[in-house]
Amino acid sequence: MAARFWLRWSWRDLRERWLQVVVIALTIGLGTGTYAGLGSTSVWRRDANDASYAALHMFDLRVRLAPGAFAAAGRLADLVGRVDHAGAIESAEERLILPTGVDASGASSDALTILVPGRIVGVPVGNGLPRVGAFDVRAGHGLTGADAGEAVGLLEYHFAEHYGLPPEGAIRLSGGARLDYVGQALTPEYFLVTTERGGLMAEANFAAVFVPLETAQALSGHARQVNDLVLTLGGDADRSLVQGEIERALATEAPGLGATVETREDDQAYHVLYQDIEGDQQFWNLFAALILAGATLAAFNLTSRIVEAQRREIGIAMGLGLPGTAIAVRPLLVGAQIALLGIVFGVAVGLLIGEAMRRLLEELVPLPAWSAPFQPRVFAEGAALGFFLPFAATIYPVWRALRVAPVEAIRTGYLAARGGGLASVARRWRLPGNTFGRMPFRNVLRTPRRTLLTALGIAAAATVLVGTAGMLDSFFVTIDRGEAEVLRGAPDRLTVDLDGFAPAERAVALVREPGVVDEVEPALRVGGTLVSGGTELDVSIELLDLAGGFWRPTVTQGDATGGSGGIIVAEKAARDLGVRVGDEVTVRHPRRVGEAGFETVEDRLVVAGLHANPLRFLAFMDLGSAGLMGLAGAANVVYVTPAPGVSTDEVKRALFAQPGVASVQPVGSTARVFRDLIDDFLGILGIVQLAVVGLALLIAFNSASISADERARENATMFAFGVPVRTVLRMAVVEGLVIGLIGTVVGLGLGRIVLQWLVDVLLPGTIPDITVSIALSAETFAKAFGMGVVAVGLAPLLTARRLMRMDVPSTLRVVE
Amino acid sequence: MIELERVARHYRLGAMTVKALDGVDLRVAPGEFVVVLGPSGSGKTTLLNLIGALDTPSDGRIRVAGRELTGASRGELARFRRGTVSFIFQTFNLFPGLTALENVQFGADVTGKRRARELAAEVLEQVGLGLRMGHFPNALSGGEQQRVAIARALATRNPVLLADEPTGELDFRTGVAILELLRTQADGERTVLVVTHNREISRAADRVVELSSGRVVADGPPRAGRAPIAELHW
Predict the structure, then answer these.
(1) Which residue, A309, A319, A808, B162, is most buried by CB atoms nearer than 10 A?
(2) What local confidence, expressed as pLDDT, does residue A413 receive?
(3) Binning pLDDT at 50, 70 and 90, where does residue A422 land?
(4) Chain A residue with the nearest C-alpha to that of B153
């Protein structure tokens, strides 16, 4: 017979069940489209990063001086200009970067109090400068040569955007200096706002202010001084070679500056933006694969049920002597066309998800260049699966139908009376109540394959939901744990960061002067590196009065006082370093040399204890060990509590105006940074959750719809006996609830396993600095049950109209 | 028990109107065993569906067991079916997920009978399937399935049994047994209406109503008188 004949016949089959066909195709489309959309993010992000860093000339090398060290303007540029391969350097620009506090309350039209720690970044301006780390001015206008020395600058875009600040306005810096900002700009080092306390996307709590170099020098009192140099190299330059030469030159010619030479990979924002791509992609791949698996299981189930309905016609064709291959053409064409339609929907869903992801990513990380082109290769992978599995779903029932003897296949009632499935295992299982109560459970067992495939489809959706929601739960629980730890005992205490090291007595006097604080404790915070067995971990070491201070970390093992000169590290740090309490670890840290110079030294210190904070980069020592850093009697941090009757905001305002105070933050602000960060990701996870809820609803609807078709004769029989529609619906709802419950319980179990994998395997690679505690909230359970049980349970109600309109006599006479 | 006055049922098939029944008058007394005979398309199943309140007439009046079906709402018709008539189908229409006993219990449950399980067991014993109670329909022969279907109808204790080609799927020997079972029900004061195209079956009836093109063309006892079921052959 002609192909056109079979094609036309298959089209009629499709048209006859057009709603179910569309829903199956949408299911496939959702699976393949989500797979393509989520699977493409790494390509988009890498392209966007490359283009954005190239456009704004991210530095290749950066020379940073130790905190408190400064060099005369021109000295660093001169030094690097004399290395052997100086010809490879395209641009070298000196900068002055200093911590400060930023009061943007005056610029806010919402009368918000915006008092955050920040950084003044002094850069050369005018004549196309800065060239290295150029500005992408998003609002207002850029800086010109005429601005040099003037109290004008640009606000970092993320910060300004977060608070909805106008393109131009005025802010105040620590010490009360006023600065007019004339625009808002993106620059490569702030594509992602990070803090030294481990915060990512910290724009709510951190403000960078870009000013002309001369302005920064004037504001900070460091006239004609710099502490930073950024360089770009020619395309074919050997970066390691130049880096080595610069390091040697600095060590030889400027040993007191404590200078380090960093590459762009050392830049935290750069590192995170690239490093996270692979980790995030693994995360998306996992969920995309689960959604695709759920969709294909559902499509397999539903397509095979459509083909099963043709079994009697297949038997008739066999009876007419048609060869098996010819008989198989029609159902296979049906399956193939459903799969193809699904793939077409998949392109649309993929494009939609891609666009939604692009918008969210752009909002999350607003880079100068962003695009999310359709990724044919990734889509082809999903499409191949999305086509093959539903197509395979048609092969199975066709194969089964062809195995039956024609005489049986065409016999009236053959299918109606066939198989009890697993119902026989429950023969002696007597449920309370009448047959109406028993029938739904028997129906679940009667069709084990259908039950299993539907439940697995729901389970896949529930797994993704539990995995994504569980990850958020785990993050929030971890943050709560960290917050509880830092707030413990003195929840209203504040951290006062000074703009440099000062004698402890002077620091204490400085913060006491306005008369707004009660308890005061000077402390030190320095960056360092823990080294053991080839593993190196960057840490922020806080030196506190561990014996008598008004806050000290909870020590889960070891000596809470830090012993004599020991260090208290995070449990995860000890695990990652392979050390235990009592072991020695190498600590690389700065040591002050003279008044303003620093050098990096290594000491072997005993691990005196392990603390309970989930942040791995926090380490504590007793203030008595400050001599190791050459900082005995000095402080760069002061912890305070508000005086009775004084609010936190009042303390912040009063201390902000004190010269030498860089910022004042409640101790819980780190938790807030992390909370904000997670809030930013809720949108992206929302897309995934939307996709799985959509998938579950499609599975539920089509399963209910096809069940109503398959059970048409049983339902008609019940109607013939006077059973009301509501009773028939109630039985269908109970059956749906049972299947939904099975799927949800399986999904919860699998989701928990996925969550464990994410926390144990994936997260250590992407956020190694946090010990994430696994948690599943009651809300997540409620969401999973709501989606899996309620949606599947209630889906049969959508068939109520069809049941009410059923032509009972005709249905009773339909033989299959 | 059953009264039909000038009942008509018309269907529209595209531009055509098909008169499945056209002005049928019929009265059936309680305990009568009536066979409705006619060729395919004569309107006999339509007649059964109208009496069983599965369908509503285009014209005329229907009263069954004192209840007026004409103009009744969907809910009233469902209640009527629950409490008055029971169907036996050519293709049995048993619930595959329920055992024989549970299928019969369904009949008792649907009418809200107490001790439905015990009643179902009792009825199954009556139809000779006491040893097959725990079997699912797919483990029963065609004859056994039809017995279960009859038992299900009997378990409702409804006064009217409507059987649509009850022997159509069965071999002769089994068909005869089923007829005997139905005959027994009529003897026990139930009204039994059997629709068939098999003229031989009509010989066992108290009364034969012949339909042709939607009209009653004959109504009365079998021409040669009621024959014992043992004498039937087809």
Answers:
(1) B162
(2) 47
(3) low
(4) A721
Residue A197, number of CB atoms within 10 A of its CB? 20
A85 exposure class (CB count in 10 Å sphere: 0-12, 13-18, 19+)? middle
Residues of A with CB below 8 A from B99's CB?
427
The pLDDT of residue A416 is above 50: no
pLDDT of residue A310: 76
Q: Which of B54, B134, B139 sits opposite A808 (nearest CB)?
A: B54
Mean pLDDT of A667-693: 76
What residues does each domain of chain A span? 1-58+267-418, 63-81+92-233, 419-489+683-816, 491-666
Give me the mean pLDDT over the A205-221 stretch. Answer: 93
In three-state secondary structure terms, B212 is strand
Q: How many CB atoms lie within 10 A of CB A805?
A: 7
Tell me the three-class secondary structure of A719-772, residue by residue. Answer: HHCCCCHHHHHHHHHHHHHHHHHHHHHHHHHHHHHHHHHHHHHHHHHHCCCECC
For B135-147, what is the mean pLDDT? 89
According to CATH, what is the number of the domain B2-221? 3.40.50.300
> Which among A419, A436, A722 has CB closest to B78?
A722
CA–CA dist B32, B53 (Å, integer): 19
| pLDDT of B205 above 80 | yes
Q: Which residue in the set A419, A442, A722 is minimally distant from B98, CB to CB?
A: A442
pLDDT, residue A684, reads 74
CA distance A209 to A107: 14
Question: Hey, are the CB atoms on B110 and A446 less than 8 Å from each other?
Answer: no
Task: Write out the residues of chain A at the interface with chain B, using a CB-CB cutoff of 8 A.
Answer: 412-413, 416-420, 423-424, 427, 434-436, 438-439, 442-443, 445-446, 713-714, 716-724, 804, 808-809, 812-813, 815
Predicted confidence at residue A568, as pLDDT, reads 96
Pick from A412, A418, A714: CB nearest B138: A418
pLDDT band at A383 (very low <50, low <70, confident <90, very high): confident
Cβ neighbours of A815 in B, within 8 Å: 91
Over residues A2-21, the mean pLDDT reads 84
Cβ <8 Å between A435 and B91? no
Residue A428 has pLDDT above 70, yes or no: no
Distance from CA of B9 to the nearest CA of A (A): 13
Give which of A713, A721, A803 to mutate to test B binding, by max B Cβ within 10 Å.
A721
> How high is the mean pLDDT of chain A?
86
User: What chain A residue is nearest to B51 in terms of C-alpha separation?
Assistant: A720
Cβ distance of B96 and A417 shorter than 8 Å: yes
For residues A204 and A482, which has the higher predicted lDDT (pLDDT)?
Answer: A482
Residue B81 is encoded by which pair of tokens?
């079916």
pLDDT average, residue stretch B149-155: 92
Pairing of strands A152-156, A178-186: parallel
Please tell me the distance from the alpha carbon of residue A557 to that of residue B163, in angstroms, as a whole number. 84
Say what the ipTM of the complex is.
0.88
Partner-chain contact A720 B52, CB within 8 Å: yes
B9, B13, B54, B167: which to substitute to probe chain A, counting the most A Cβ within 10 Å? Answer: B54
CA B233 to chain centre: 21
Convert the pLDDT of each residue in B21-77 to its tens digit. Answer: 999 999 999 999 999 999 988 999 899 999 999 999 999 999 999 899 988 898 899
A575-581 long-range Cβ contacts below 8 angstroms, 24+ apart: A576/A535, A576/A537, A576/A616, A576/A768, A577/A530, A577/A532, A577/A533, A577/A535, A577/A537, A578/A532, A578/A533, A578/A535, A579/A532, A579/A607, A580/A607, A581/A557, A581/A607, A581/A608, A581/A609, A581/A610
- Is B82 in Cβ contact with A809 (below 8 Å)? no
CB contacts < 8 A, A to B, total 108
